[in-house]
Amino acid sequence: MSNYVDFSGRPFHFIGIGGIGMSALAYVLAKRQMPVSGSDLRPSHITRKLESIGTHIFGKQEASNLEFFRSHESANRALLTSPQTSPTPNNSTLPQVVCSTAINANNLEYKAAMELGCPILHRSDVLAALISDYHSIAVAGTHGKTTTSSIIGYMLLEAGLDPTIIVGGEVDAWQGNARLGQSKYLVAEADESDGSLVKHTPDIGIITNIELDHPDHYETLEEVVNIFQKFAAGCKTLIGCVDCDTVRHRFKPTITYSLNPETGADYTVTNIDYRADGTTALVWEKGKALGVLKLRLLSRHNLSNAVSAVAVGRILGLEFGTIAKAIATFEGARRRFEFRGEVGGITFIDDYAHHPSEIRATLAAARLQARPGQRVVAIFQPHRYSRTFTFLAEFAQSFTHADLVVVTDIYSAGEPNLGQVSGEQLATEIAKLQPQVLYQPNLLLMTDLLRQTLRPGDLALFLGAGNLNQVIPELIATLCEPAIATS
User: What family does this chain come from, according to its entry (predicted)?
Assistant: First the structure.
């Protein structure tokens, strides 16, 4: 693959443009007046939004899509240019083709691009080029990337710094997973899942924590550490959370943060109060009290994320009052303990947690929010066979804060099923430690099972990075039916 990214006006074509990471890049490029097109197998609100700003979307990933670029340059301009975009000054109509790790060499569209001689870019190449193009803040870590980068982006936005933002989740404050600002600042989420983290050289880098989370790419934690160390070496300023043993012992951050004052971190907190409606804490900067930080987000891990944002704000010269005022109004990213509704006395929460550590943290937050006598019901869709197999024992121990666990089959995320593990096997392991466990392999029948199982007063959490959350609207609708029928 080529690593050179041409921002002079040559078209970009994204294979799989509807993905959360790919679409954010496409959005920023299109808003920067560059010709952008892409393909995706399923239309969505994300692809419709891209179309609304002039992006040409193909509904299939086929070799014929690339015929689009064989036409005369004027025809190419006519299709790719809209009131939001400008004609390309480049003589070549062949696009720069952008792929994620999910696109393999057998993809027909990818093969056609290779045969045409299109420059082939990995998604991370485009992100790395954008990071180099701005005064950039890149958030890395096994957990907390989306929330942390969203808090920082929101803080800069509220402080009037007008940042460009590229994150791995959707945020209501900018109505999606990306925004184009007019300032020099860029906030981006830096993903370690495929090793591409090493390409990024931000002005400020953050490492929230480090664990083995992608056994499809890494065999050992040491391999993960090595990738993060290369990322750290490319950061002009590195902010690290020393509550993580690996960060504390294997890295030398420029600036440190912690929830424990005894660590001697540059930024830490005391007087912590975790409540059902949010969290408050007194923030300290190198031994000096800055003031009280309030956030609507729940639990320990989100307080840690917010403290890292404080560190970033202070590096950029923001007053603590400005930082605290912004963070106090941040409502979170979608699918991060996202409230989806309350019907029949049942509260529905959607969360992206798919690693044992994330599940424990999310359920701890749920238990904190639960009223006396309220059941916490965890509905979990395992994500990837490799992750489920590698962390089977850890997953089994992650549901201690739940009163009832409902498990469905594994979401493959494109992985082949090697027959090593199944959702039913995971349910059996959880049941050894958790008395109330149900298994429903068929997502289509999950609505019926939950309608029979959930009861008024329940706090129902839908956990996973797959498509489990598609059940929520249907379930809410069916629970509403009796009320509608008698009205």
Answer: Belongs to the MurCDEF family.
